[in-house]
């Protein structure tokens, strides 16, 4: 039944374009209020006019402001020209252009300072003949320029801004992006274009994670071995850092450095081994490394200074008891606080597992001497020392949430990566903090996951003051699996949605509208040279060894890189030097076609049967794709790992198409194979997950939800013996395979239906369902099965079967539900060694005769039949239904002769 | 008749994919010998095995070499991993990896030096179990690494190198790319990726054009106003220059600086006005600027230091008579020769138009005093001074070919931009030189134009020694119309073909094979982050305001930017700050689909009628595209200028499709409109040219080459009166519109044919043909018409009509041709005032009866009929036929009842 339906493979070529077609749906559709904004401003009143953009566009700056406004205005003009193709007469902005009659007037009260809590508010009045942007600071004006560019539109007649009245200011003062330049180094051009993109979505903090186990990435004149020995030549010079800071300052963005200590310090310790808490030996304590792997790693090195290549948590930790270390760190802090003008200085502090401290007798002795009760407090001792150095330079210390222990001075600021709970806890204890948990963009979650994380949601118990101490959030771009080539598609466009969460009102939450605006924003970000849209194609051309990558684009349209840390199990599959030019690197976190398809299926299942043809077009499209894929495969060894994925997609699409044929539903062999195939296709291939499996499976389940009841003239005895049934095809209830408690549920129930003029007869055998009538523990006790019938008038009738400790009872009426009009004839037996404590039994077997009149129905095919299985979590809880493990198809009953 | 054939617009979607289909023809086809090489090595012997690439690939370096070989080997490993997706056990190359059993052994005799004439030869032996690369220098080894990467291949089984034995060395020692960073600045990342790409195709000189009218782009500590006042902040710091030089050195590439003097020096003079030959006033002598334009320009400036914004040749010129200037220039030369280690130093010297010198009395006096006869020699005086400074630093001076005047010392080196003649002249005079004429990649010519330029071709008269003095060539990337975003698609892939011309044997000339290999090379260059493939799509998405740019890709598939300097007439349409995000900027010099179509049409016209369906598929595809285009157009004002182009393409495709219907050929109204339309469609739209017009027109001409002769029973009188002809549709001979003497020819001739059993009757009226029997001048005298018949046996019969000074004579037999067997009945008259001197007459009118037997044919439809019009160039030349102004269709005669 897995045969290919070949008539479609011939039409592959005209189907390739469907992707264009589908993805361009609602191409220019715009919600009245949010249009193309990202982030959405606080208050927008649209007028119904347009400000036409032509070559006479002029811009004039008024008031007091920093020079950065000239640059920002200049860039604004340039971007506007580049969008419109209009050659402006005024291509420059300088003092000579001050003109009250200019088409675009910017008025600023004072020069802004790039620091936390600087005023970023602005108002924007777009009239049909003139635009007025007012702001307290030039930084606010820069935010307003981005908003104006987001009101840009065009039609046949020309380019224009929609007339509007906008008042805007940020919800949170700290809207950051953390860039990990240690694991993989990301050079100047990468950093600069991130700053451009950040400014475009009104972000205001670039947090540079400059030092970690895998590299120290900044020139230190005080401790030169840091960059000389622990960067392999890939580091920022101090001139470059100054250039980054100036570039960021021009865009109203702070730059905060982080030097992760005392853990995550392998690179520092590589340069200055005397700082370590244990003699430095590369990989000596690498977790989970086999002896062979270690041997190989050593053989490869054979030189003294080689950086850590793997991802993970490593042992090398700075010795907090060695006073000399504080001298070195003080030199570094003095140097770096001078280089970075920002008020905040981040010391990391995360994931110190204390291994080297525990193993070091001298450290243990020090703790005893100094009454330091545990390693947490020892790290606090270390942090406190650093805090003093940082404060001595007039700065504030920030750290990851591990630094929050008893005794941490209130001046320290907490960046929460572990969860909002720790953030709220910090706030309640009087600390200031910001949220990164939920904004880990390296984990390749859908943008929906990030967008729905609100730093304050769930913290309603906090006082207004405490709420204010939560400054905002930061998207964190950890770069273990990200190179300078792929980083753009990992940061963008998802980070724009996080930027909106941190700027816009908490009431801006519509996911569909966010996606619509994110698409526009994503394209617009290409203005800055970002490669998030282009680089995946570059990778695919390389893999395909061809310029014709249509068949691969079909796959990246539906496959997403494995989420969380799953792509790189234990941090051992990849090293920092592995090729990141694989199929998974061309996939993005929100596979675009998968989302379109999921929405289509949702609409279809909610009754939008008009979507059927569109759904089938997609399925035909995917079904035909594997043949095109295989043409590329013949000339590419890199595609070997992708071949199963491609084959799965086409096969699944075929099966799903087949399931639209209702006659398939009673072909049990077909059904079982198909079911198994959906299950298998959920697994990773080429370190990616096919995101259309679930919606396809939903379609499949929906399509096979037909119940056939056969007419019988010989009334079955209700005795739990099915010998008097003449059953050719059993039907099947299956679990939806929700992942529960560490495993997918595999419960299922075979059943058959018969009918005569008086009754509907049900034969039911609950398979593979571990039940024991006399066990003392486990999930078997107190289990229920419900059979639910829903008739044309939408009355529900529930038939409940319960297994208790000693016996199987039948209950014809579920007290909590509509009652049956008559006693229903039924019998239930347990197949197996009932009441033998040591074993699991095999199954229930059930036989029921339900009078039509009790169903308020007669010979009806308008009955839906469901089955629900309830389980208890433990034997101790007697009546609590902990979870629903399976819902049978909400199927349509068909009475056949 | 311009009606849209709507049945096709419905099929647009499945046609969109044709572009994929067509462009992927011969996707993996490879010529046995040249495979994917670019440049092709001197000697290649293929073995029939394969060296399989797996994780156990190892590389070991032997002999004496510079550290650059570690870097190059490391990059080789990285690129190989990134192509194959294989994770090598050996990811690094250092001393620890020396191993005679390594899979890949590199043996080098000595460290190379990055200088002219360094040894770049290598030999490469790829066996199935081991690879051996031998070279005298590490630079040769680096060239060999690129060759090895070009033997990379893959199939289902895996990735491999083809086994081979290769001996290679360059034909020319100087293979350069000149990068103009003055007009538009191109920052570090742009320069670095050009260096990577250059190395990939074995180029060895980066020529940095650092100073021109529009900007001085390098930090000068000696004359800091140069970069401070004349760069708008866009310049290379000296640290950056050192970084570029080191990066280039690592890749075996020299970096030569150019400071253009004494002309093209507006930027220098802006910074140091005291250097000028006339008081500096911006734009004061801007050629061709209207008073309004000047006024606007001044109004915009209003500040002292603003860079020249336009392209062209400007007046500001350094005063060669001012000794102080030499002090300043000497400071600059001392500083820059110290910074750039290369032996060569380029002083520009081009396009000095001497205006300011001629207008400056003091300069004129100086010339008189010093016996300097003309401005050429004055510039030579200037050059000689610079030469001494350069030589004092131990360097050699290079200049554009204007510097070559009497008295130029032989040490100076000539870079020829004006033509090979000046290069050969220089060689004959004993100078060394290199060629850039023919390699002006900024002019957007087809790669074919560059590839077919051989520096030595045509210089056969040169002695071997003189030939050796021609060092090679340089592709020149002038950047008036090129930004950092678009430059990659202007340089690549065409420059790879120039690199091959300069490296490979002169016998490597096959254009089709070059194109095949160029496609592969182009994709491979994406490894270095080059945007030549991706950036056009970025531009199109911006223009379309959509991610769905399929309709625009159809257009960029067939449209090319205007060639030569035509895109920017007089240098005034664009400024350096204009938006270069227009449709033309997304088009490339070799529109890919246009080339495919041209080849198809050529094959078809050469008798490959099997191509008809493929041709029609393209035409249907284009015909349907305009509708898709217009959907984008509704939301884009930038597309306004593209709309006529899109409409033209669709209309032309329709007309060309229609022309396949032979009955159309006798519809004169249709024919005229169509002809006019092809003519109009040749014109630029959106500063691009539709490159499929000509092949479509060829098809049209071919398809309409059907002659219909009607059967008649009433024999016409041969009296030049057509009243006894019953003609409904006249046919038409038309000129092929070759561009002759400043205008397209519009000559045409109406004609009709009739036949009976005895004769073929011809009625011919030569229209619109300016003839005067008694003019003393002009092109009318001595004109000829030839009617040529070619029969089945391929005999040719020519009927000649001649107009002489006084009368029209007929000649039945063209003496130089096959003779007619009988006297043919005919009559010719001139319509108009014959013999009135003052006017032009209207036309010839001709009537002929040609007996079938004289055509050696009877009732034959195998006759082809041509008409040729000859014209004399002038009245004075009596018998010389200067040019063929038109050839009628070589049409097939159809006898109809």
Automatic annotation (TrEMBL), chains A, B:
Residue span(s) of domain Glycoside hydrolase family 20 catalytic: 172-505
Signal peptide (from-to): 1-29
Which key words tag this protein in UniProt? Glycoprotein, Glycosidase, Hydrolase, Signal
Catalytic residue positions? 351 (proton donor)
Which Pfam families is this protein grouped with? Glyco_hydro_20, Glycohydro_20b2
Task: Kindly list the GO CC terms recorded for this protein.
Answer: lysosome; membrane
Record protein name field: Hexosaminidase
